[in-house]
Amino acid sequence: MHDLIISDLSKTYKNGVKSLQNVSLQIPKGMFGLLGPNGAGKSTLMRSIATLQEPDSGSIQWGNLNILAHPNELKKVLGYLPQQFGVYPTISSEMLLHHLAVLKGIIHRSERKDMVDALLNKVNLYEVRKQKLGGFSGGMKQRFGIAQALLNNPKLLIVDEPTAGLDPIERNRFYNLLSEVGEDTIVILSTHIVEDVKQLCTRMAIMNKGEVIIRGNPIQIIENLQGMLYEKTIYKNELDQYKKEYQVISDRFYLGKQMIHVISETHPGSDFTPIKANLEDVYMSAIVND
Ligand code: ADP
After folding, report:
1. Is the pTM of this model over 0.85?
2. Cα separation of 47 and 61, whole Å?
3. pLDDT tens-digit profile of 112-139?
4. What is the DSSP letter of 131?
5. Any ligand 1 atom below 6 A from CB of 235
6. Residue with the nearest Cα to atom 13 of ligand 1?
7. pLDDT of residue 286
8. How distant, in Å, are the alpha carbons of 17, 135, 140, 152, 222 from that of 52?
9. All residues at 6 or more sequence positions from 237 whose CB lies less than 8 Å from its CB, including other chains
10. DSSP 15-66
């Protein structure tokens, strides 16, 4: 399968917000994680790839397909789960999937039934297929959202902050489902939850203020920070002073104490403890230093 190649994508909204600034990314088959704080531009990028919104400039190429020039060709192979996914509360998941399948052009009744049943099983909703969607929990709605996104066996699946509002068990189930899909599909997953990317993705990018500030393989990206990270427990009222003296990338309460993580080329002092970097540290240092 060809990589998805995004080149120099830019978008400025009418209110002057530069939501994408020369974004270029190469996205191979598998799970690709797009991390960044709220407002970083993740949704704008995903809507642009899904051709739901036009960028001001740039291109998106997939093999021979120029996506921005031929949105209808893309839609045949695209699955999309938007951030806000509304369902019709009064009809069942089975009925809505049938309806959406018809809209996607799957008009042959028995073919459609097979597909809908298989999807309901895949997302673990077969038992409740007759229940009204309005009574579904957040996790069930998300699983339904994934089922509709998978209707036409997409080759490109885009999911925008899919784990927001899921409890840990639902989230885990959702991870498993996505990983399975990612085996033969390009899956782009946007999230502000670092854990999502750590668990799932072989490639990732961190966005901030409309720009890609870090990209690559999560393990390699973490490796780049090893040997430079230190930890110290301080008093809360010392925090401002430490921020002035050191490159503090995070501070949090841990067991009633204030814990800081500091980046330093050399050992910052004997009262600091060297620690192993993880993806949270990478994320925090990228955003703090941007
Ligand atoms: P993310 O998905 O990372 O939270 P978004 O792509 O939603 O980021 O937003 C990027 C920036 O663009 C934010 O500052 C947001 O307020 C702004 N923005 C998003 N959509 C619109 C819009 N339709 N009109 C104006 N500004 C927008």
Report:
1. yes
2. 15
3. 999 999 999 988 899 999 999 999 988 8
4. S
5. no
6. 39
7. 93
8. 18, 29, 25, 18, 34
9. none
10. TS-EEEEEEEEEE-SEEEEEE--TTSSHHHHHHHHTTSS--SEEEEEETTEE
Residue numbers in the chain where pLDDT is lower than 50: none
According to the model, what pLDDT value does residue 284 have? Answer: 94
Contacts of 51 (CB under 8 A, 6+ apart): 67, 68, 71, 74, 75, 78
**Residue to substitute in 44, 160, 211 for testing ligand 1 pocket (most ligand atoms within 8 angstroms of CB):** 44
pLDDT of residue 4: 98
- Centroid of chain to Cα 115: 26
In the reported structure, the alpha carbon of residue 164 is separated from the centroid of ligand 1 by a whole-number distance in angstroms of: 17
pLDDT on residue 255: 83
Bridge-based pairing state of the strands 65-66 and 57-62: antiparallel
pLDDT for residue 249: 95
Residue 229 pLDDT = 97
Q: Is 144 in contact with 123 (CB distance < 8 Å)?
A: yes
- Return the structure tokens found at 237: 């009222």
Nearest alpha carbon, ligand 1 atom 21: 13
Residues 6+ apart with CB under 8 A from 220: none
Strand partners, 2: none
**pLDDT tens for residues 179-199?**
888 888 999 999 888 888 988
With 0-12 / 13-18 / 19 or more C-beta atoms within 10 angstroms meaning exposed / middle / buried, residue 171 is buried
Q: Give distance in angstroms: CA of 19 to centre of ligand 1.
A: 6
Q: Rounded CA gap, 163 and 183, in Å? A: 20
Amino acid making up residue 184:
D
